[in-house]
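Quick one - first record:
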Amino acid sequence: MSRIGKKPVAIPSGVTVSLNGADLTVKGPKGEMAMSFVPEVTVTQDDSGIVVKPINDTKRARSMWGMQRTMVSNLVEGVTDGFSKRLEISGVGYRAQMKGSSLNLQLGYSHDIDFPIPEGIKIETPDQTTVVISGIDKQQVGETAAKIREFRKPEPYKGKGIKYAGEYIFRKEGKKK
């Protein structure tokens, strides 16, 4: 039994949900998102919220049960509050700034990196060493943050690079003389 899948997804006020067979559309104050369900689960809407249940007791149906419920929960949370990731840049001369519709990164390479901002994502740079990525799609926000981090991952000796806020970098001791 899926502990996550058993819980119904509560629908907050200001959010409208329309369910057409295997397609779900959620509209809220931040925007609108839609998804399709796998055929191994059934979805119903009642007073407590949206309920996801497996059709049968196969391994795939049970594994899809909790995942599909979490995806519905992410849709509802995305259109009400949205998601955000915060990146921190550390290193001498490393900085980020917005230039029009792209993010300009100076990361110690011989050239600047211009990262085009994907549709549906909002990027802010409160200061030169902080990048805040926000949007309504959790997967797209995380993927964009991972792509930006990939340009210069934090190295273990001095910790220079781009890291997630709150991420622990395992530090190594340098060479001894």
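second record:
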Amino acid sequence: MQHESAGPSPVFLLCEGRASLKPLEASSHQNFAETLPTEMSVRIFRELDVESLCRASRTCKLWHSIISQSEQLWRQQCLLVRAVCQREVDSDRRDGLSWKVTLLRNYTRSRVKADWLTGRYSRVRSADELLKRKMVPLDAETWGEILQAELDR
């Protein structure tokens, strides 16, 4: 049996502390962040990975404002980067950098370091093979970790 809707589909809304179903009006806002409390929008944005979060922040001024001002969002993503770059993240935080700046400084580094540590570049025969890859400067301690990982393989 096919269900046909006479109007817009119902949307679940919380009204005055109780749940109810109300149809969306044609003139209602299409942007959830305009109707939800900021805390709820942040909870939705927390489901995104860092690349999607950065793309979402370019969607509109409101999303940009919510995302850029939420330390919770940047902290969550930064802690994922910290799993690979603990020393670098901890150093930046000790220096007083925000979670967002710390993440931006260390995101690419963490991706490159993780690739090296997991052996993605173990069979590189020449520097020319690395030219197609995005690289960042790594400190001596990181290169020591990478060398040890290579020796352990």
